[in-house]
């Protein structure tokens, strides 16, 4: 989906100081970062500011960056940290923050009806329903599902990004799946009763 | 027990192994859902604007790494001396008086406009208008076809302002014989008559000056960020508000540049010799000079532009001002393209853009007054 991987060639050229590689890096990852950022914050200016800061940091420290990295993961991780910090700062400035949810977290999921891969109307309904279910899961479980299945990160990467252990990460996903099942069963019964 | 075991093994490789049929279905659907989320895309124009912002920040940073420590030192000293600085700032000079006049005049105008000291506004309809001051500045010859008269007060604090919008140009001959070519999107504030020890004008945008020699009465060009002191000479000043830098190019004679930024210890200034360009960056308070071929910087006043390996972005910015059109770069590759050659500004815009298109092999699209190169 969001898998554009120009490989580590580009990354290495960037580290060795090529300005065209810097520009290509911007081209390749800005859209991914923006979508990712908008998942965490509804403030598009804040997300753009963080993208700006991320690329400025990359440019400033390019001499000391590691060559052997998963570029996308590295960028997402740094970016998430920036978003987190920016979010904290902006909620400090906001007087109503004590009322609002103070935790930094992921926004609700909605299924995109325009998506080509879904043809079946029944499947559409089911996915809409699943999205509702997932949105009711605890924050961190939702985030893990997103990182695992939308961003296609592996457990080690998710664990490192969210600062939890790998087993905890596994448990979260497992629990999320169990919980979804329970809820789906419940609501299909409810649906059944409705039809009777 | 069984469950514990499964938890450890199953999720080792992938999630699906060992799940019940129902659980696998949920998993599959979750994957599909996660791959078809409604997501906010970044509009292309915003992506490009953000790229520019990144590049500008980098450009600014790269110009001052060594000085940052000194900046920190200077900043803490400045903090101690805030009172002194306040005193410095309170001293008002003629440049800031004229800057104030300029700021009060309405900016968005379709026509070239001359505002007199008595607040009358004269509209000049020509594409390239020409003004000549005569008789102590009380009489102004416009486009050698009409004449405007004004009262000239004894005090020099009354100014005339010439505003040239994008798409227009103007020349003006002041009462001392100094001739000034004003480029598109520029504004000049000046007294109708020069008396006293100095001749001072204020410029926003770009102008070429041919200053008549009068050693006893130096000529000053004030801009927002620098001041140019002149004895008698020919030079170009470019001080557009939307440019990062203010630049002066000296053709002949001698000029001296002073940064307006008040520094308590050293005010930046530089003397220029002919064939030199000075560039001042207000954000970093950095004044640099370099020897240049002056022709590309001043050719606009003759109605053409010369470029030597100039980035397309800079060229399009100039053309946007000159023709009052919105011309931009739509693709990343186009950003690295440079152009060398001469563009004749007598031609209409489409023709000029065709020349660029042919020699860079980039295509452009037009929608009304908007042009995008890809």
Automatic annotation (TrEMBL), chain A:
Residue ranges constituting the RNA polymerase sigma factor 70 region 4 type domain according to the UniProt record: 133-180
Organism of origin: Dyadobacter chenhuakuii
InterPro entries xrefs: RNA_pol_sigma-70-like, RNA_pol_sigma-70_dom, RNA_pol_sigma70_r4_t2, RNA_pol_sigma_r2, RNA_pol_sigma_r3/r4-like, WH-like_DNA-bd_sf
Keywords for the protein's UniProt record, in alphabetical order: Sigma factor, Transcription, Transcription regulation
Family named by the database record: Belongs to the sigma-70 factor family. ECF subfamily.
Pfam families from the UniProt entry: Sigma70_r4_2
Domain of life per record: Bacteria
Protein's recorded name: Sigma-70 family RNA polymerase sigma factor
UniProtKB/TrEMBL annotation, chain B:
PANTHER family with a match to the protein in the record: PERIPLASMIC SIGNAL SENSOR AND SIGMA FACTOR ACTIVATOR FECR-RELATED (PTHR30273), PROTEIN FECR (PTHR30273:SF2)
FecR protein domain: residues covered: 162-256
A Pfam match: FecR_C
Location of the Protein FecR C-terminal domain: 304-372
Keyword entries, A-Z: Membrane, Transmembrane, Transmembrane helix
InterPro entries: FecR, FecR_C, Ferrdict_sens_TM
Gene source species: Dyadobacter chenhuakuii
Classification via Gene3D superfamilies: 2.60.120.1440, 3.55.50.30
Keyword Disulfide bond in record: no
Chain ranges passing through the membrane: 69-90
Name assigned to this protein: FecR domain-containing protein
């Amino acid at each position: 989906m969001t898998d554009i991987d120009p490989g580590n060639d580009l990354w290495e050229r960037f580290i060795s100081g090529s300005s065209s590689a810097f520009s290509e890096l911007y081209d390749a990852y800005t859209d991914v970062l923006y979508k990712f950022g908008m998942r965490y914050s509804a403030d598009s200016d804040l997300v753009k500011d963080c993208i700006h800061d991320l690329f400025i940091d990359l440019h400033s420290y390019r001499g000391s960056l590691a060559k052997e990295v998963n570029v996308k993961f590295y960028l997402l991780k740094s970016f998430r940290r920036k978003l987190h910090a920016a979010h904290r700062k902006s909620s400090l400035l906001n007087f109503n923050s004590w009322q609002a949810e103070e935790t930094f977290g992921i926004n609700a999921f909605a299924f995109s009806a325009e998506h080509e891969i879904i043809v079946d109307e029944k499947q559409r309904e089911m996915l809409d329903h699943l999205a509702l279910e997932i949105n009711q899961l605890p924050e961190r479980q939702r985030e893990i599902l997103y990182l695992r299945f939308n961003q296609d990160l592996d457990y080690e990467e998710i664990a490192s990004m969210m600062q939890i252990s790998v087993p905890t990460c596994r448990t979260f996903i497992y629990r999320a799946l169990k919980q979804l099942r329970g809820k789906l069963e419940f609501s299909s019964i409810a649906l059944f009763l409705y039809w009777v | 027990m069984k469950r514990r075991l499964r938890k450890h093994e199953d999720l080792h490789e992938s999630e699906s192994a060992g799940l019940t049929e129902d659980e696998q279905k949920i998993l599959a659907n979750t994957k599909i859902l996660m791959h078809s989320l409604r997501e906010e895309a970044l509009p292309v124009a915003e992506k490009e604007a953000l790229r520019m912002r990144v590049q500008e920040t980098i450009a600014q940073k790269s110009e001052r790494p060594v000085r940052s420590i000194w900046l920190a030192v200077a900043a803490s000293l400045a903090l101690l001396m805030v009172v002194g600085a306040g005193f410095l700032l309170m001293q008002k000079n003629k440049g800031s008086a004229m800057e104030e006049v300029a700021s009060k005049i309405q900016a968005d105008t379709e026509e070239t406009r001359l505002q007199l000291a008595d607040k009358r506004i004269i509209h000049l309809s020509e594409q390239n208008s020409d003004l000549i001051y005569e008789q102590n500045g009380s009489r102004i010859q416009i486009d050698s076809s009409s004449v405007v008269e004004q009262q000239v007060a004894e005090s020099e604090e009354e100014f005339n302002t010439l505003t040239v919008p994008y798409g227009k140009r103007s020349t003006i001959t002041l009462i001392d014989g100094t001739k000034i070519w004003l480029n598109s999107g520029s504004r000049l504030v000046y007294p109708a008559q020069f008396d006293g020890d100095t001749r001072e004008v204020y410029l926003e945008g770009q102008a070429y000056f041919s200053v008549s020699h009068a050693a006893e009465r130096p000529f000053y060009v004030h801009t927002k960020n620098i001041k140019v002191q002149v004895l008698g000479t020919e030079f170009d000043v470019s001080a557009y508000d939307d440019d990062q830098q203010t630049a002066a190019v000296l053709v002949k004679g001698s000029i001296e540049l002073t940064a307006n930024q008040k520094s308590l210890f050293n005010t930046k200034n530089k003397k220029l010799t002919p064939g030199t360009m000075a560039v001042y960056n207000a954000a970093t308070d950095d004044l640099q000079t370099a020897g240049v071929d002056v022709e590309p910087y001043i050719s606009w006043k003759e109605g053409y532009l010369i470029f030597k390996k100039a980035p397309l972005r800079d060229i399009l910015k100039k053309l946007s001002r000159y023709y009052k059109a919105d011309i931009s770069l739509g693709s990343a590759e186009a950003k690295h393209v440079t152009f060398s050659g001469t563009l004749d500004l007598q031609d209409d815009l489409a023709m000029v853009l065709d020349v660029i298109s042919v020699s860079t092999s980039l295509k452009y699209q037009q929608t009304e007054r908007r042009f995008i190169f890809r």
